[in-house]
Design goal:
A: alpha/beta, five-stranded mixed β-sheet, 40% helix, B: alpha/beta, six-stranded parallel β-sheet, two-stranded antiparallel sheet, 38% helix, 9% strand
Amino acid sequence: MTALQHVKSHAHYTVQLPRSDDFAFWRESARALIQCDIPPDKVAWVEPGGSGDLFASGGMRLPEPPADAPPVRASKRYLSLAANAALHRDPARFALLYRLLWRLQANPRLMEDKADPDVRRVEELDKNVRRDSHKMHAFVRFRQVEEADGAEHYVAWFEPEHHILRANAGFFQRRFASMRWSILTPQGTLHWDRETMREGPPAQKADAPQGDPVEDLWRTYYASIFNPARLKVGAMLSEMPRKYWKNLPEAELIPELIAGAQKRESEMVAAGERDDGVRPESLAAIGEAIQACRKCPIGCLENRAVMGEGPSDATLMIVGEQPGDHEDQERRPFVGPAGQLLDVHLERAGIDRDAAYVTNAVKHFKFTMRGKRRLHQSPTAKEIDTCRWWIEGERELVRPKLVLAMGASAARGMLGKTVSISKVRGEPIPLDDGSELWVTAHPSYLLRLDGEAREKQAALFDADLAAVRERLAELAGQ
Amino acid sequence: MGVAPILDRLKILADAAKYDASCASSGTAKRNSTKGGIGSTEGMGICHAYAPDGRCISLLKILLTNHCIFDCHYCINRKSSNVQRARFTPQEVADLTISFYRRNYIEGLFLSSGIIKSSDHTMEMIVEAARILREEYDFRGYIHLKTIPEADPEIIHRAGFYADRVSINVELPTDAGLTRLAPDKNARQIEGALGKTSSDIIEAKDAKKRFKHAPRFAPAGQSTQMIIGADAASDADIVGRASRLYDSFGLRRVYYSAFSPIPDASAVLPLKRPPLIREHRLYQSDWLMRFYDYRPQEIMQATEADGNLPLDIDPKLAWALKFRERFPVDVNRASREDLRRVPGLGVKAVHRILASRRHRTLRLDDVARLTVSLTKVRPFICTVDWRPTMLTDRADLRKLLAPKQEQLELFAA
């Protein structure tokens, strides 16, 4: 036995730690005790404010290690775990660490035995402390205050579970080196003035500032990024336990967000829902049904639906955008200025309008009132998509071999996506039912142009119609 | 037309970003502000808050604008949707990021955008926000930029110099799904952009080895996201696609986003609760491939007749139940690979078992101390004092191990 012979076997030693997180002091004391061969059950470790071991004789001085005492051995793994586990608030942690250190002297590879209860416990303490540190990095919320000299000072109030404040000073210093900041906790305070770190006495919540205007933005963000259709309260609570909530400005929103989630989700589902029911099976029935259609806002305006017209077995279907003022009044497609212009061009191309089924992608006239005049407004993509329901019905019944869509809205009505007229005109696009789609400009586009531009566009329009005429002849010959 | 207050626009542009699955802010280069600037990254990302949907808030995840000239059916911001529109300037995004960062609300910025004017213009604006943060604020925190595959590769390339991570969404597991639901997008273009960024990352890493001062390029790599449950793709399809993406483009992560009902949804989409459990099972299988050496074919073996993973049990258990002849595994002798196949044993538990058994012969209560739950593990292992006689042959084993009550999606893990 190399320990001091004068140490009586029943003697108890008390080590008074200067600070709860003073691992360096503990390490020095533990090293000396091991070298004096003092077994774990003879040592009591007392931290500030702690009562320690009732049986410990507080006054007994620690023995001096003998000069020839062997060095104390500890694996790297032990040291890194112990340094962190020492920050745990469990009063028994120092005794546990000493017991492990004691056992390590006889069994240097003890730390590898993960099933050993002491090893297991110290790993648990380490894990708890690491988690608490991580939560501190995450949940400290600075509030900005203006100092007397006009400088910005960021102050946070945080309540750590373990003695981790000092150990985490470096993290905040590295991250916010260029800011002046303070972190206040019930165990102590840290103050960084952009050059040096100062430690201060424990603080109270009232010492910290109460608000920051940016918190409103943050709460807005927090509420908006939450997707009510994915509510998983358990997952949230396991990562952000309630004990942290009181110092998180955004947490006050949580009960309300949870309570409203189901309602918001069912509203989302309902808003997208559409019960189309069964489509009428004749053109006449569709013509009747569209009068009552209110699936989009256009149907709710002061207007009348306009049905397509022409032979119900036409080879050619001509589709425009929507009825205009004249069409709405006469309840017939393409009877206004654009329709008259279309007639001129069709005749020039040698296409018989009366043999074609002429209709529109959107069934009602969309307008805004300008004085007493109803001013044409283009339908939105959504409105066109909604109205596809009807034009698809017309196509199913008429079964044209060729569809001529005039303008971007008509093309969208046929394809379900927006295409650029200049890119797709002059070429057939195959449709699902085996027919083909040709796309050209809307005649009202020509009406809005003058001079050279109009001539140029009119020529393009004529060329498209001529190509359609040619294709119709081919299809007829097949 | 006046510009709405920043609070109102934040509401719209954060709401529009809530369908993005990625939130990672880890695995990038180490940086800090001790020599100037603001911010740090220390390898491990930090989740600064958790929304009630259980997802973490690590980055300020917003859209530059939710105006969009594209018309993808699954997207709330598509052209034909009637949502309220708003936009931020790059300067506003940078300012908002900095003021949140200073208060320790976030790790950095995740910026995405609807496409305005043109893909190039939009990408320029995204890069500009990152440039202001890095160059004018000397910001050292995390930046994740969503790049637009249709944009000029040169502009996308610039994004990589400011960002820690770039991502390009493949959007849907199959090309057919993409054609149907995202008429303006092109699968080949998306893969082209992924490939270009992947080779840029490799090139920059190579340069870094030769020249100390070579600029860093997306040090946290690239990721992608696909939407689950909007088209008919099965889990087997999805896992196959994901593993090809990992192989071809060296992706850090493939994120799965269960399609959730969106306000003003397109009529071609399913309007129901997002398939959250399915999404969870896919993440579990992703985990098995990345950390447990399961091959994609093995995940597919765990699927049921319809090609989907079972919803009532996790994919590891599903695989084990199909290959019962591989069990029980002797915890005192089995290899690391075999131990990792045991349902209920995680990477850490396996490590603990391997370390401990050099010191002792493990008994069942030793295993209990080393694992989270013994119940799940017990039928698949043997120890010196335990052998699960015939248990792996029991026809009702699945029923015994599946969660007792029918799990409500609402409270799914």
